[in-house]
Amino acid sequence: MKYEPPSGCFVATLEKLISWLVYASVVLGVLFLYVLYGTPGIPSFLFPSILAGEVIWIVCAVAVSRKARWGPYMALILALITLAISLSQPTHYSFAETGQIVAFLIFSGGSVLQFALIGAVSVFLVKSRRR
User: Fold this and answer.
1) Of 27, 63, 87, 97, which one has the fewest beta carbons inside 10 Å?
2) Pick from 104, 45, 46, 110: which is nearest to 78 by CA?
């Protein structure tokens, strides 16, 4: 017979995974701001816009760390918004073509993180409703 841990155990593991994915998104966001700050020729509105988004991600990280009920919902919404904005920008894809390896790794790593976060939060919400 196969051992299956109680569903609460799985939900707790998902909570930890979601927390670490949110923290990693914050770290990548800060790294992206650092890279963006030194990039010449960016529009003047871009840095403050991304900085505002990063502040919202930090609020989400604090909510998730304090286990606020709305934290995973906020993470899901932010991940969807982040993907919608970043995947629609053709300049993000040109990072690889122009040899900007760090920027491309941040973009691709962030995209993978957001997809993982969407999946983890979705499973978490389904499993936690069954409890």
Assistant:
1) 97
2) 110
- 8 A C-beta contact, residue 116 and residue 20: no
DSSP 10: H
- What's CA 74's distance to the chain center, in Å? 11
How far apart CA 13 and CA 19 sit, in angstroms, is 10
Contacts of 96 (CB under 8 A, 6+ apart): 104
* pLDDT tens profile 63-109: 999 999 999 999 999 999 999 998 888 777 777 788 888 888 988 99
Q: What is the mean pLDDT of residues 14-29?
A: 95
pTM, two decimals, is: 0.86
Write out the H or E segment, with its range, that includes residue 128.
helix 101-130
User: Residue 10 class from Cβ within 10 Å (0-12 exposed, 13-18 middle, 19+ buried)?
Assistant: middle
For the chain, the average pLDDT equals: 87
Q: Enter the tokens of residue 3.
A: 């051992």
